[in-house]
Write a structure and sequence with these properties.
single chain, 351 residues, alpha/beta, 10-stranded mixed β-sheet, 6-stranded mixed β-sheet, 8 helices, 16 strands, 26% helix, 28% strand, globular
């Protein structure tokens, strides 16, 4: 058996320790439209948030459904029956301008989708691309860290989102977008989530009597999926939005009155945790993840050991992590970083 290369986990290889706050929602992704009075104006608000640690995986699928809701809200009403008046066909000159609230992966993918449908789009946010949670971690294409829904209808919709998103990823220029298919190794003792693989997007894992990894001999599983190098992916999103005529405007919203001052009649709410207070959504909660960034190492494989994982991002080997539900402190505790390092060193049999 050929053993794969071991990572360098020495102290000298540590680049930084960071923390990201996942925008989780107890009832799953919120994708719906409503009419709200914001300040002195009534606007249509399309909600698209609550993606937890699964924003990149679900991004394009949710963007399509959010854009469908925008189209439904901006289409002219049909003429009364029996009048003989033909329906009005929407054209770019009749489409209303759209405001996207936020500039993470969900906001930018939604902007990109709406721009492809000829809408005029402006993204409003206090931070962009490289300063968002979307840019901190490596992203394995895997529906983890998110609620699937508690009803048959909710689960079916979520699986539709995954299938839409997977198709969109298959159409990307993989080099430009930083998308790479890699093997993911999981030790046998780690929990196996069958729902990750029963939605027609990822082939089920293969059982291995021995993982081809350095360290203690152990059985496990391997599956193949896309790994997304998030800095390159986010740059490509920003470039696409800009090339298609989208605008990025720095703005902070402290109240609904602030939202009411926007000129656009339709707002797409991609504010993640910011929606908790602005839209009184108490199903939203933060979940902190701590990551140790090591020097870049092109290993060509990932480790999935629950919330202890290793991703070979092109600018850093990323060691994770944790799921601190209810914690929104962005400062990474030193003891958690040390536990992450110790776990991976034990896993690979190094001191």
């Amino acid at each position: 058996m050929n053993v794969l290369p071991a990572p360098d986990l020495s102290d000298s290889a540590i680049l930084r320790v960071v923390a990201g706050i996942r925008p989780c929602r107890r009832t799953g992704v919120r994708l719906e439209s409503e009419q709200l009075t914001l300040g002195a104006r009534t606007k249509t608000v399309i909600h698209n948030y609550g993606h937890g640690g699964c924003g990149v995986t679900t991004s394009f699928g949710c963007a399509q459904l959010a854009a469908d809701l925008v189209e439904a809200s901006s289409s002219p009403p049909p003429p009364p029956r029996g009048t003989g008046v033909p329906p009005v066909i929407s054209s770019p000159s009749f489409l209303p301008p759209i405001a996207i609230l936020g500039a993470g992966v969900i906001a930018l993918s939604t902007a990109r989708e709406l721009l492809s449908r000829a809408y005029q789009v402006t993204c409003y946010a206090s931070a962009f691309a490289e300063h968002t949670t979307s840019n901190i971690a490596g992203a394995l294409w895997l529906p983890t860290g998110i609620e699937f829904g508690s009803t048959h209808e909710a689960v079916a919709r979520f699986q539709d989102i995954l299938q839409r998103s997977k198709r969109a990823f298959s159409e990307l220029d993989r080099e430009r977008w930083g998308v790479e298919r890699i093997p993911v190794y999981t030790p046998a003792y780690a929990a196996h989530e069958e729902r990750f693989f029963n939605n027609a997007t990822i082939d089920p894992p293969e059982l291995l009597e021995r993982l081809p990894l350095p360290g203690p001999p152990r059985a496990g599983r391997v599956f193949y999926t896309d790994f997304i190098h998030t800095p390159r992916f986010m740059r490509a999103l920003v470039d696409d939005v800009s090339a298609r005529g989208g605008a990025l405007v720095e703005r902070t919203f402290n109240s609904r009155d602030d939202l009411g001052r926007l000129d656009e009649p339709i707002l797409v709410n991609c504010l993640a945790l910011g929606a908790r207070d602005l839209f009184d959504d108490h199903d939203l909660y933060p979940a902190r993840g701590v990551l140790v960034h090591m020097k870049p190492q092109p290993l060509g494989y990932a480790i999935d050991d629950g919330y202890r994982y290793m991703f070979p991002r092109e600018d850093a080997l990323i060691l994770g992590g944790c799921f601190d539900a209810g914690v929104d402190d962005p400062d990474p505790p030193e003891h958690i970083a040390q536990e992450i390092l110790a776990h991976h060193r034990r896993f690979f049999g190094v001191s």
